[in-house]
Every structure is written in structure tokens, then in C-alpha cells.
């Protein structure tokens, strides 16, 4: 987890004269926006910030420990992140495993994150569980160290190893960060190793190491705590004193001063990546730390170099040279130092020398031509919208306050720092460019596919990384919970047993207004005046399901091309016009819909809708942009072949739906299906976009009458007839009981997909199945997660789900497990599903009901969640009170209903198994499961 600089700019009130006047009929919260809070410090040194937000009956708690990987020692890397994992296990006054299991059962969510400089723990719960979360959070903070056992230590080592395998070892370009850190920072610098660390260091960790780390860094005086949401300040102060006041202060942790680095020479390195299909170039320049004034100018510089179609690097690399589909340039600042990064993943077969030359030319163009005032104003305007979006939930507010307090000593620091961006000039931007980029040394990495080392930059030196060998399962890798620790509880003047629930908050669905335009488009809206924002989307039925046979990806390409300008505006001009409003508009395609989504400041809704209208009704159909987008798609599809999880997901759908059903083919097509798509096909597909099968959804600081007036032009100009949606035949389900295996040589993990076609969202059984799945695979409290991760340490996560679709959707179990735990994991899943229905108890019924009902209290907090609610109403014909009805359905389900649903949709004998992993070591193992094993290639074809 990394602190976003964009979230630093919280308040940018009324800055931009080029935006339209404020609409007076809505509540004008733009005149002044701030995060009100109260701060106090306990006697033990814990700094506490309270923020009241009563818009939803929920509470968020965030705790930052001022210890990240920068406090580690060589030979003990990865320990801050490892300790975060350990902290979620046990504590003195909370039952074993409760942290991960009980919070979801209360209707809440929880997680943590570690980065170079800190560790954050956070939860969001319904307000009736407020004191419970203080109990569990404070116990993890101050009362966990005595409960750590050797068994728990060894189990968590396996979990962290699995996380590294999933995110680094089994991922294309996963080792790049390690290569850069080793060479950018001198040996011993706190940033010279990765946050996740080295596996040998983790494996060597002892109980003594854990205790030493806790005693040194987990004192109350080395942390900040934020509580945000539906709280009473006076009462919360008393509760914080009770639950957190007795935590030891801990030793003084001396602050680390900034440690920027300089390079005496440029270093060029290359690495042959087992998973990469495309060559990637990165250039990393050492810069400045967080909150340094120059960091803000560098952030803007990154946007100016590649953040728009008028940017110098985009024009040179993407448009002129056609070397890559996109360019990334950005500033990444941390507590001690910072980096400015240029990152380009090139098209297949492109020599990275060509990319490097194009970067040099693009930077030269930037120096000579600079940038326009509009480009700088666009960035400022977009940031204004983004910062409001960044505090649209109580959890995001908690993140903002707690990180600014702990790392800047001031929860208001981000608000104060808005002055930097408000007053930034072109001289500021060019000054940091000349100081940190122009003629400066850097680290350059060429990460190339193993088979094409010639694509690396000429003269690059080969980089080395430590790569784990995963063989047969070692005896010390078979881990479990083990016995609980024996210890004497820490004395307290308070009763530290679990507090009771408070009065249950009542779920109140947002008020929904509806309407209909003369052209047939339906309107659905929710007025919300918390922030001066509006979010909206138009969904048009069809999408990928209307792709002609053999041309899968046509809907996706059509949507993409509609973003690239209008009849009166080039793609670059359109992008700038929208950006100057601080707005965002994007046209995309899904399996069943084309959608136009966007966000804007409330005052700019009318102008934003004029651009929506223009994009929808006057597409440019630019042949050059079409060719570029098609090349970009080809690059993306080729890169997808390197991702084991993508390979598994795509081929699992193909197994269930067959190759003749649209769901059996990826939404954006394949290399074969997009090859024959022409601009003429795009124009023909465009005729499918009819308002008769469209719905407009809007949420935010805007009234119905204003929405209808703003859409009047679209209504009068956009005409169309009803579109005949295809009825597709599902194939016979004759693959049940088979296990399919796809070889990805050298995989450190096996990706598992297991399931069957189940139910459409329109089916009366859809919600019953959703409810019946909760105990099996619903989040971290589900049995799959609890057994495969918590009990065995085989995986980083394991879940099951049924997505909402008009078409019949699959019930799916998925996980990525350690390669040598493939067979044991399959056996556990097989047995768990086999016994799930018979073993389902009345206690499981009550737990399911409690968990889902309570989770609904926070189900509609964000704008996105509210848009989702409107989408469910419009797409599936649900009633305005459908959530209440679904809750009633749940409450009326008895044990027999659950058992019948499980038997009907989650019978093990009906499931199809797919494993994507290393054939050399695993295919002989999976054959021991006793199922027919059929080998496929990465495209889903049966291997002879």
C-alpha cells in the first residue's frame, strides 16, 4: 500500500475560472470543503483523530504503525509485512482466528497493508459493532505478542511465501522492483530491498525475532489511530481511553530523516522473464521524499509527459513511432526518498533500443516545445474532482487523516499542501525537470521474454535475482494451527472480554427517482449532497453478446474507438475539453452491455453531458486511431498469454460455455477473432446502440429536473429502434467430473478454477444460491479461506462466487496454491464441497443471515455502490425495494431451503476442475485425485 499524492489535494474550492457557474438549486458544498476532526493524545503517546460522518450507520477504524520495511535489517527483510500477517492471528482476549473470521460475520470488512514506511490496519463495520471493533483492534495492537506460537509462525511463513509467489514469482515483470531497488539504492539503504522481502530471510525468522520487532516498534507512541463515521465524540473518547489507554507506550522510535540518493552513473540491466510475452523498459530517476515541495511539481510533470494525447512522450512513442500502446510516467515519493519512473511495455517483438531512442526524442521535444496553459489547467481541474472522490467514503477519510498525521504530524497537511498545486507554474515544472531528469543518471531495466534476449537495450548487463525452487512438499511446509500458547494474561483494570452488540442499525435503501425520455431511455437517480460530485452511466444492452460470429472483440473495439474524438474534435482536443472541466467520460463494453460512464463536479454536469452527447452521436471513426487501437489490443492479448490467472479464467469459461457461445470467448476477443475486424465492421456494430434498450443512472449532488433538462438534447437527437438481443444455446454440460490441466512451465503456484454453470440473475434461485454460498466461500470467514490459508498455509486466498448475469452464470471456486500443495488443495476442496450440503447446520443458517443483513448496512455508501443498485433495478427489473425483499427472502429461508439449494447447484459430482501450473512437477500429482485428466494448451485446445 502506498500513499497517493493525488489524495494530498483535498480542498481546491472554486479555483477554475474556465468552468461553468455553480448551479444554485443544489446544495453548494464547493465554497469550502474540509475534513472536520478532533485530535487528542493518550497518556501512552497514542495520537487519536476522530471524524464524525453520520451519512451511513457505519464506522471505520484505521491504525498506522510507523514501521515499514525501512526499519528492517539486511538478512531480516520482509519482516514488517510478515509481522502484519502475524498480527491478524491471535491475541490474549480474542478467540483464535477471530480477527479474520468474526469481523465479516458482523457485517464488516478488514485488512491491512505494509509499505516501505508504515503498516496500516483498518476495518469498517456497522455501528452496532463499534465497540466490538475497538475491542478486537486494540487487542491486536497491544495484546497479541504472548499468543504467538512456533506453529502459528511457521504457518504464516507459508502464507507470505504464497503471496510472494502469486504477486512476484508467478507474475510477468514481477522481479523488476527487486532489480531496481538493488541498483538504485546503495547496499544497506532502507529502500534497497523489497517490502515483501527475501524468502530465505522469512524462512529464517524465529519467535525471538517476532518478539523483538514487536517490543521495538509496536508501542502506542509509534502509532496514530483514526475513528471516522457515525460516532459520538465524547463517548468515543471514553471508549478509546478504555480499550487503548493501557497499551504500553514502547521505546522511543527515532524519526528517520530523508535519505535521497544520487547515482554516479547510469546503470542498464536486463532480465529474461519466464512469464513475460512483451518487452518492457523502465527508467527510474532518484528524486525527493513525501511532502517535499518538489514532489508536487514532479507529480504534475509526470502527467504532462504522458497523461494525455498531447503529451510529448505519448505523441512520440505511441502516435509517431507506434512502439507501444501507452506510456506511464509518474512520481513515487516515500518517507525517505522518491523516484520518477518512466515505464513502457512495448508491442511484441519491438527492440527496446528503439523505445529508448523514442523516449530521448520525446523528452527533447518536451524541452523545446513545453506545454500549453490548458494542459496545466487540465491537470489542476482533474485533481479537484479526484480529491473529492478520494474522500467519498468514511474509510478513505480515515486513510487520509491517519497517514497525514503519522507521517506529516498534521492531519490537515494535505489541505494545506493544496496551495502548492493551486499556485504551480510552468517554471516550477521545468525547474524540477531540469533538476531531476535532464542529463541525470538513472537505472534502466529491460525485461524481455526468455526467448528474445536480443530485444534488450544494447549493452545492458544481466541482472540476477534469487528464484525459489519449488519441489516436492517438505516436511516443514505441512503446517497447521497447532496448540494455543500458554501464557499469563496481561493485567487490566478493565473487563477486556467481548462487548455486546449495540442496537442494530436500520438499513435504509437510498430514495430512487425514475423517469423516461421521449426517445425511450429510462432514467434512474439518487440524490446525494455530501460532496459536490456527480457520477453517472448509460448502459446499452448488447455488448459482447452481439459480436458477430468470428469477430469477438468487435463491441470492445467499437467502444474504444468512440473515445477517440468526435466529428468536430480530435481525440486530443476532446480529452482536453473534458479534462478542463475536471470531468471524466469513458465508453466501454462488457459481456452484455455497452456503457458510457463518467464523473464530474456538480457545477459542470451540463457541459459534461454535451460531450457525452457528442461522443455518442458524432463519433469520429478515425482510421489512424482505429489502427492504433487494434495494435494496442493485439499487444494486450499477447501479454495476457503470460498471466496464469488469466489463462485459467478464460479457459474455464470456454470449458463451461463452449467456443460457440459469446461467454466462452473473452469480451475483448482473441488474436484470431480481432484480426478480421475492419472499420466498416465498427460502423455497422454502432447501429446496435439504441436508446430503446438503454438506461441512464446518476448519483450525486443533482436533482431530477436538472438531469432531465441536461439530457433533453440527447433525447431529441438520439433515435433508434428496439434491438433484437441474441438468444444463445448453452452447450450440453458433459465435462462434469473431468480435470483439465494447462501447462505453464516453471509456475511456482497452480491456479485452480472449479465449478459449473448455475443460474441467471433473473432466476428466483439466484439469491438463494448467493446466500447458500456464503459459508463456503464468502470472503475471509468462508471455509475455503479458513482451511486453505489459515489452517494449511497453502494459499494467499480462496473463494467461491456466482456473478450477476442475465445469462446463466457459473458457480466458481478459485484459488492460487503453492505448486507442491496442488493435490492436497484439490482433495480439500473436493471433500469440502462433497460434505457441504449434508454438513450444513442450523447454526450456519443463523450465521449466514446475521452476516448478510449486517453487511447491507454499508452496502450503499459509495457512489459506485449506489450506481450498482440502480443498475440492478434497470437491468434485472428489480423493484425499488428489492434489497428489502431479498432480505425477507433470506430471513424466511430454513435449513431445508439451504440444503436443497446446495444439492441443486453445488453438487461435487457436477463440477469441472481446471488446473493451470507446472506440468513437469504437478500432472502426475493431480492424476492421483482419481478424475480423468485432460491436457489443454493455453488456448484451451486438447493436446494430442
Summary tags:
single chain; 944 residues; alpha+beta; Cytochrome Bc1 Complex, Chain A, domain 1; 6-stranded mixed beta sheet; 33 helices; 17% strand; disordered N terminus
What is the share of helical residues?
A: 25-40%
Spell out the CATH superfamily of the domain at 35-256.
Metalloenzyme, LuxS/M16 peptidase-like
Per CATH, the architecture of the domain at 35-256 is 2-Layer Sandwich
CATH class of the domain at 35-256: Alpha Beta
Arithmetic mean of pLDDT: 91
Q: Determine the structural class based on helices, strands and strand pairing.
A: alpha+beta
Could you tell me the strand content as a percent range?
A: 15-25%
CATH fold annotation of the domain at 35-256: Cytochrome Bc1 Complex, Chain A, domain 1
What is Rg? Answer: 28 Å
Can you count the helices?
A: 33
Low-confidence stretches: 1-31
Count of individual beta strands: 24
Straight-line distance between termini: 45 Å
Taking strands numbered 1, 2, ... along the chain, how are they ordered across the largest sheet? 1-2-6-3-5-4
Major β-sheet annotation: 6 strands, mixed
Gross morphology is: globular
GO molecular function, one term: metal ion binding
Domain Peptidase M16 C-terminal: 205-383, 677-851
Organism: Patiriisocius marinistellae
Signal peptide: 1-19
